[in-house]
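TL;DR need structure tokens for one chain.
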Amino acid sequence: MNDTARSLLDTPLTLPCGATIKNRFFKSAMSEIMGDDENRPTISLNRLYERWAEGGTGLLVTGNVMVDRKALGEPRNVVLDREEDIPALAAWAENGKKNNTHIWVQLNHPGRQSPKFLSPQPVAPSAIPYSSDLRHAFNTPVALNEEGIQDIIGKFARSASLCKQAGFTGVQIHAAHGYLVSQFLSPLYNQRDDRWGGSLENRMRFLLEIIRAVRAEVGPEYPVGVKLNSSDFKTKGFTEDDAFEVVKAIAAENVDLIEISGGTYESPTMMDGQRNAEKSRPFFIDFAQRAVAGVATPVVLTGGFRTSQAMTDAMAYAGIAMVGIGRPLVVDPDMPKKILSGESYQSTVRPLTTGFPFIDRVAMLEITWYENQMRYLGEGKEPKPHEGVYSTVFKVFKHMGGMAFKRRRA
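>> reply
TL;DR here they are.
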């Protein structure tokens, strides 16, 4: 990789709030499922994020951290809603900040996207059940009333305040992938006729009120980001035109970084790891270019980056401020350091299969294989990029028991 291309990734980024990130590598959120039985962070999370910090990434975003312990997306999610957990949170933050690294907490509420073995009575904008076989794994949600909506907005703000107290360097509000904020944005799942539904202006109100409440808690100089779908990729759902209007609205609220993704766990475009990667073309890049042209807020693009060339090409072509990376950093946490040393890099990430689609689906192989690799890092070991898939199925089952293969995501 030539010096000009490398300098794109090695240039510090100053955010609107004034904070500076040392380079343009952005570790996107991945669920680690490393909380303890009381949903507190563990020493494994400390080791995992210390390892990523040592590898040279500029900004680490945690896996989704829930703002309400009665609303979990997955077993062993970390929940951030009480002050007595600050010492454990502070240890996590301190390890993630090593090597002049930013570590932000991704704050989330699952809404209806919480499996029935975790949420007997989930909540959502509207009482719309899942269709097809998903209805067997997810209970029909209850529509939130005004008091419930205001309560959840307050929970996001309180969690953000605790993040700042614990020493995390920023927060990201998860408004993508079919979780609660994304459900409010979608006309498929938000069929309300009050001020929280109907028009796009009303459907985005929940997200905007969360941003305002969070900003009121953390102040103007603390980084606040948003992860947003470019589209839900569902007929009559949240469209790219909708997303562009939301991008402009959240930029006006003085957010510091907008991460672009897409899809939901019903239409998992964000998980289709090889489709565009094989063409050396990142997901959602055309929408990212549109967003960059529409707002001054820095934009991150996540999904499908497998080579250093694709990263620098995307920055030059679309004008994105940071490159969002997930699975390649799991199998090689030193990837940023290697690229910044001048190495022309290609990730070893590949499609995973047992050869039996049913087993792949039941074992959630494209999720559990990477969870297992993160577990190695959390144990102070190195990842095993070429580990066999059957070994993963066995180890995940041993680690989590039957719960490992219960339907955890839509």
